[in-house]
Amino acid sequence: MKDLLKLKSSLAEEIENILNAQIKVEAHASALYLAMSSWCDDQGFDNAAAFFARQSDEERAHMLKLFKYVGDRGGRAISPEITNVPTDFESFRGVFEQTLEQEMFVTEQFNNIADVCMKSKDYVTFNFVQWFLEEQVEEEYVARRIIELFDVIGEQGTGQWEIDKHLVKVTFDEA
Amino acid sequence: MICPLANVEKVFDTEHGVVYQCSRQNCYWLEFQGTTTAFKISDLFLFKKRIDAIDIEAMLSESSRSYDFEIVMPFRTERCYLLNVSDILNLREILAGTKFMIQLNSEVKRCLRRGCVIA
Predict the structure, then answer these.
(1) InterPro entries, from UniProt (chain B) (predicted)?
(2) In order of start, what are the domains of chain A with their CATH numbers?
């Protein structure tokens, strides 16, 4: 009997499902950062608002990269439904702490994907997710460094204004 | 009725229905409730997902008559299935068996290919 399954797709169902789940995670992250951008703008933190708008675009680009890969391998990428996007945040510092938590969650997700790929011997997808894992080093670094600015500069007086001014200068420098 | 030009092989059957694969047209034929419907492989799996997602518990527990039947109209077919709980369970059995046999066939083919090339 002809193998119609492989003629249609090179992706195992399990891999296609976890990649679609990750597409949803990235889309949610994009929506979350857009909400943070709006909140920062509302609070008068111009640079932070621009930072989160860029982050939002970046997460969407990640989502589209996954989306294209699923399609390229013969799978069906699913445009996700995004719910539970917050509109309000506790504090300026809290926004960045939530960002770091979000990035650490994404790293954990990609680690799980790599683990599943390894177990199912899908080294093509394993190789594909390496790019994301490397990207996560930068994402976590930047979020952590910005949180440290809150301690280094302090939030009293014009502190928040200083933090907003300096957070754009945080960049990741690969060795 | 299955196209007379089709080159079909039985994939899986139960007393309630059967699925054939047509390797000429690269599609599957589902015989169920006295009807025959052709699906491409991705559509067949989507159809299975749709049937698996039906909330049977709600159908059994809700007293409203609208819960007695589920209407399913798969895309790219001219079929409209009117399913009661028993039909859904029967259809799930056919589709689960079919999916397993398709995956098993794929795995067997993979092993055979490997054997041909490496042996």
Answers:
(1) DUF6686 (IPR046508)
(2) 7-169 (1.20.1260.10)
